Amino acid sequence: MSTVPRLTDRKREAIVQAAIAEFRSNGFETTSMDKIAARAEVSKRTVYNHFPGKEELFAEILTRLWQTSEEQSALSYRPGKPLRGQLRELLQSKMRMLNDSNFLDLARVAIAAAIHSPERTQDMLARMGQREEGVNTWIVAAQADGRLKAVDPAFAAHQLQSLLKTFAFWPQITLGQPPLSAEMQQEVVDSAVDMFLAYYQLPAER
User: Fold this and answer.
1) Which residue intervals are the DNA-binding region (predicted)?
2) Which domain holds residue 14?
3) Which of 133, 158, 166, 167 is the most buried (most CB within 10 A)?
């Protein structure tokens, strides 16, 4: 079987790469499907054949960045394995994503777009949120295994991820601070794990 990408796949990839360049250079509001088509060297009709609008195209880009930054195996709950080690793996995977310069650039674009036009970008931001369900799924599995308190998993997952974003996302997005050093990344991950387990881990597990 040939491994050469089909023409339609090559065009789709060209559209995505052109969109990434346009969004990063010009922002969400200024970027148009015409500009994306011109940069990708395809017709505007071809762009619309692949993506109904730039909101869907932007969501596709963010999803790709998220997928390439995560190690899906690290997101799976493993019964019988220490919670601390699993949680550190999970948060280290998230930390790698939060320190990806491409992701940060496009997250800035998405957030700026949401401020100026929340109605148009609501679905796009909802899709961004869906990519964080891996933490929620892990917590649900650990609760079902009788190892974490039976609280709202979405609430606990939001708390946990906020411990990372306070240091490794919002300062970079809003204040232009540089990504965290490797040492600081590990410190943030370890402290988040300690705080989360101190409250949510059942006494029998400690």
Assistant:
1) 32-51
2) 1-51
3) 167
168: phi then psi, degrees, rounded to nearest 5: -120, 20
Structure tokens at 80: 């019988």
Q: Total structural domains in the chain? A: 2
Strand partners, 148: 201
Per-residue pLDDT tens digits for 86-115:
999 999 988 988 888 877 877 787 777 777
To the question of pTM greater than 0.70 for the whole model, the response is: yes
d(CA 153, CA 143): 9
Quick one: 40 and 97 in the same domain?
Answer: no
> Is 128's pLDDT higher than 90?
no
Shared domain for 17 and 81, answered yes or no, is no
Residue 175 lies in a domain: yes
Q: Can you give the CATH number for the domain in which 184 is found?
A: 1.10.357.10
57 occurs within a structural domain: no
Asked if residue 69 lies in contact with residue 91, where contact means CB atoms within 8 angstroms, the answer is no
Q: Is the pLDDT of residue 48 over 50?
A: yes
Taking the CB of residue 202, how many other CB atoms lie within 10 A of it? Answer: 15
Residues 132 and 161 in one domain: yes
How many other C-beta atoms lie within 10 A of the C-beta of residue 191?
13
The sign of the torsion formed by the CA atoms of 144, 146, 150, 154 equals negative
Q: Average per-residue pLDDT in the chain?
A: 85
Kindly report, residue by residue over 136-175, the tens digit of the pLDDT: 899 999 999 999 999 999 999 999 999 999 999 999 988 8
